[in-house]
Write a structure and sequence with these properties.
12 strands; 7 helices; alpha+beta; 4-stranded antiparallel beta sheet
Length: about 270
């Protein structure tokens, strides 16, 4: 039976959808291995390693916000553009190849493709999806954080009442050169100097959303929506950093006496 309540975004009272608050539904579907004995994705944390069908849903949004806004304005296009479940097809990367767009070095160790040079890349969907992920992440039970004074800016933008929030940068990184391309995680919040970084990953792509009036010049230079070239970056250290994080998490799980090992993309 549908649960009734006020939509967390628009405030309308009515039936609420079971919204995915950690990762979108398409990510969980993509991480499944249908031919395996246990097709469910691997969940790795300091509490151990398990395979589970749990998707962290809760009644949060009305059908208009869930379907007409979050899905149609961002998630649907990003799901098509990111790395697909065969771990080979990557429409976003293929669009650069088809358009003959080359990489450009923008700083030491960082190169980028310029999305502004490819007509079929819908930058507005990327921006909306990133903002929706950071905003909905506030409601994940056990991992709550607050956008504080920026919450209303995010809310108005997602409701299409205002432009993208001020003093916020989006950074998008390609990941398609290692065994970690399918690795995904929900929004994590960290402080860096006088700014806050919200990062999350879906198959083939990592997002950083940097919030704060004192963002450094690099944040603006590499920002997807502030830089007119709309850079989508390749960061040489991305996969090595993610692997280090995996090793650290499994080590902590082992220290807690939990079963712990790294899994290959096929779960073998």
């Amino acid at each position: 039976m549908p649960i009734q309540g006020h939509c967390a975004l628009c405030g309308t009272f009515g039936n609420l959808c079971e919204s995915h608050v950690r990762l979108p539904k398409f990510v969980f579907k993509r991480l499944r291995t249908p031919t395996a004995a246990n097709p469910n994705p691997v969940h790795l944390s300091a509490m151990g390693v398990v395979q589970s069908s749990a998707q962290d849903t809760q009644p949060l949004l009305c059908s208009v916000c869930e379907n007409d806004r979050f899905s149609m304005l961002g998630e649907k296009w990003v799901a098509h553009a990111c790395l697909q479940d065969n771990n080979v097809t990557f429409p976003l990367v293929q669009s650069f190849i088809n358009a003959g767009v080359a990489r450009h070095d923008i700083m030491e160790g960082v190169s980028a493709f310029y999305a502004a040079r490819v007509a079929d890349i819908r930058h507005e969907c990327i921006e909306y999806f990133a903002a929706s992920m950071v905003w909905r992440g506030q409601f994940l039970i056990g991992n709550q954080y607050s956008l504080g004074p920026y919450d209303q800016q995010f809310r108005n933008y997602l409701l299409q009442k205002s432009q993208f929030p001020k003093d916020v940068s989006i950074h998008l990184f390609l990941r398609y050169r290692s065994n970690l391309t399918q690795l995904s995680h929900g929004v994590r919040r960290t402080r860096h100097d006088l700014t806050t970084i919200y990062d999350f990953a879906i198959p083939g792509l990592s997002f950083w959303v940097v919030v704060g009036k004192d963002r450094q010049d690099w944040a603006k230079q590499c920002c997807f929506h502030e830089n007119g070239f709309r850079p989508i970056m390749e960061l040489e250290q991305t996969d090595s950093l993610m692997h280090e994080q995996l090793v650290a998490v499994t080590a902590k799980a082992a220290a807690n006496g939990r079963r712990s090992r790294l899994f290959s993309p096929t779960g073998q």
